[in-house]
User: Fold this.
Amino acid sequence: MVLLSLTASHRELDLDALERLSTGSSSVGRVVVGTCGPVAGAVVISTCNRFELYLDVDAPLSGDSVRHATRHVAELVAHASGVTGDVAARSFTVRTGPEVTEHLFAVASGLDAMVVGEREIAGQVKRALAEAREQETTSKTLELLFQTASRTSKRVGTDTELGAAGRSVVALALDLAERELRRGTASAPCSSAPARTPARPSRP
Assistant:
């Protein structure tokens, strides 16, 4: 068995391109396993800033089966998303063997996030594995890979300064918005109009 991953994220594509690419992400894993003979398992991570497919391929590391699987998966993604096959193929970074493990561990731990150390991705990695189980597309190798990545992510979150400082993209955006609002309030000019004295009631 060989680990193979096709990954696209905010590092390579803008968010609009990522959204188009991941349009059919909910069914891609099931279709890949069902139509590509060498692929024994698939787990798909699809978020607002990344679209990644992790595959368990029953083939030699440098064999034609791995290259065939890569081409076939790109074509399936293209068909599901409506982009061309060439666009899909160019959008992905392909990794094999230990590089797949290294990348997933970095993703799960927040090292590859838009905001380094953010913790939302840890839950998204767990959900990706749960969805693969529901669709019956996972494999023993992918189960071990994702469970170990989740345990590593948890240790990073509890035992390192990176975990202590981890923040979500949403939290950062809210902080920035609040800072801008405070700045705008502080610099707002005072009204030059004189204060109005309440009118006295007229005596009969």
Summary: Confidence is low (pLDDT under 50) at residues 190-195. The radius of gyration is 24 Å. Residues 140-159 form the longest helix (20 residues). The CA atoms of residues 111 and 178 lie 26 Å apart.
